[in-house]
Amino acid sequence: MGRKWNNIKEKKASKDANTSRVYAKFGVEIYVTAKKGEPDPEANRALKVVLERAKTYNVPKAIIDRALEKAKGSGEESYEELRYEGFGPGGTMLIVEALTNNVNRTAPQVRSAFSKNGGNMGVSGSVAYMFDSTAVIGVEGKSADEVIELLFDAEVDVRDVLEEDEAVIVYAEPDQFHAVQEAFKSVGITEFTVAELTMLPQNFVAVSEDAQAQFDKLIDALEEIEDVQQVYHNADSEEE
């Protein structure tokens, strides 16, 4: 399970190093999620999840407020949620999620990123069956045993609770995201090292040193696409 946390850590570190790009992507995601429901996170659970994620990436309040105000307005900027699946160097599998107002722009860009960096796109369903949608929430200052007891008392079911890198990481079903957070908040824990709804691979692929450089280029190329929100993969990122 530690490998899963390493994958999330690497993705988060990459985003932390590209803050302006990350903030822009969150702005779009917040706008789209608020527009689909209510611009009030208490009335829109999906929006609440996005805002919790934004908090862990230190997205400025001004960007969040601007996206929410835009969603409240009369403008109708239409976005589509898209998922692309493909294969990368070293036998890796990737899922690419995008929000776009121009499908004819996004699809060729994703396809080009794959083809120019040792990969190729697959058909819908060719990769997704090897990943599980998962809520991942991390806290500091508690032991795994304390967290397990806390979640038990709150009657929250989770997949796993592990101590990893001085934090306790909770893996749960996506519909338990809020329940896990509320359990922590009930004992005064309001800051999370990670709060994600993510796609975790069921199995990992060890990437050779030769394939690693090209794999990294593929990930960078995909994440640089303006419409791409998330890139998930099954490359083994565990340090030797």
From TrEMBL:
Keyword DNA-binding: yes
Keywords of this entry: Coiled coil, Cytoplasm, DNA-binding, Transcription, Transcription regulation
Coiled coil: 208-238
InterPro entries per record: Integrase-like_N, TACO1_YebC-like_2nd/3rd_dom, TACO1_YebC_N, Transcrip_reg_TACO1-like, Transcrip_reg_TACO1-like_dom3, Transcrip_reg_TACO1_YeeN, YebC-like
A GO molecular-function annotation: DNA binding
Domain (TACO1/YebC-like N-terminal): residue spans on this chain: 3-73
GO terms (BP aspect): regulation of DNA-templated transcription
Residue ranges constituting the TACO1/YebC-like second and third domain according to the UniProt record: 79-235
Record's keyword annotation contains Secreted: no
Primary subcellular site in the record, as a coarse category: cytoplasm
Gene Ontology cellular-component terms listed: cytosol
Top-level taxon in the UniProt lineage: Bacteria
Cell compartments where the protein resides: Cytoplasm
PANTHER family xref list: TRANSLATIONAL ACTIVATOR OF CYTOCHROME C OXIDASE 1
Family assignment from sequence similarity: Belongs to the TACO1 family. YeeN subfamily.
NCBIfam families noted in UniProt: PRK00110.1, PRK12378.1, YebC/PmpR family DNA-binding transcriptional regulator
Record's protein name: Probable transcriptional regulatory protein B9T62_11975
Native source organism of the sequence: Paenibacillus donghaensis
Upper taxonomic lineage: Bacteria, Bacillati, Bacillota, Bacilli, Bacillales
